[in-house]
Amino acid sequence: xxxxxxxxxxxxxxxxxxxxxxxxxxxxxxxxxxxxxxxxxxxxxxxxxxxxxxxxxxxxxxxxxxxxxxxxxxxxxxxxxxxxxxxxxxxxxxxxxxxxxxxxxxxxxxxxxxxxxxxxxxxxxxxxxxxxxxxxxxxxxxxxxxxxxxxxxxxxxxxxxxxxxxxxxxxxxxxxxxxxxxxxxxxxxxxxxxxxxxxxxxxxxxxxxxxxxxxxxxxxxxxxxxxxxxxxxxxxxxxxxxxxxxxxxxxxxxxxxxxxxxxxxxxxxxxxxxxxxxxxxxxxxxxxxxxxxxxxxxxxxxxx
Length: 304
Fold this sequence. Notes:
There is one protein chain. The chain is α+β, with helices and mostly antiparallel strands. The protein is built from 14 helices and seven strands. It has helices at 15-19, 75-88, 96-101, 106-114, 126-135, 141-155, 172-176, 180-184, 190-204, 219-226, 234-244, 256-266, 274-281, 288-300, and strands spanning 2-6, 30-33, 36-43, 46-54, 63-68, 158-161, 164-167. It has a five-stranded antiparallel β-sheet with strand order 1-5-4-3-2. A two-stranded antiparallel ribbon has the order 6-7. Strand 2 and strand 3 (36-43) form a beta hairpin. The protein starts with a strand and ends with a helix. The model has no long low-confidence stretch (mean pLDDT 96).
């Protein structure tokens, strides 16, 4: 086991609040419980159990990290693990300009006080965000979460640490070898099974590099490019960008859950369309995606 701390974190940051969305997570995949978060991650081609605890404050954040692996953990692995943790939890992102830009929005400012220091958690790889978004197309989130757990446990690599088995999100190579029948057995529709298999094959064959899109400045260009691929539409791309790329200007306005949140906090619970959600969000400027995340978390935390 290797232990170290991360202190170079932009404040404010509330680790426990930011990790709370994993309270109902699977303890063999990713879970937050009793002020501790853990997940199996692939670090330099080694599977490692990463355990994170907050040992600081919101204004002076500090995280304690434990790395456990069946292979020797080198200094370069520790360095890479810190980079991955910083990326997943957006530790280098400064919330202050965001709060400042939205301070005249009375509704948001009230919610932000209740969730001060909340940062969005993103997937380790864009591929994961895309697969999650495809799985969640046109079904309830609870149903999708169960499908995603089965996907990880059936196709993901495993590591036994401290006599417990943990599962890592599958590589594109693994999913590329999956059959439609195998993927459908997880609860996916025939079309979604095809989409996931075919997109995984594109990545495995070197024909698609999702990580490269992180370097693109315009999210609309990313959407336009990815929508050329069968199985990927505007909603799927917007969801992928929000949860996998740290680009805050994009929001999935056609998502029913997000529209419900916008309606509840800004439109007196009136049923609104995607266009009406976009119109409401215009005043949020380049922060649309992050405001959207705060609204969804406010609903989850039952903040009125």
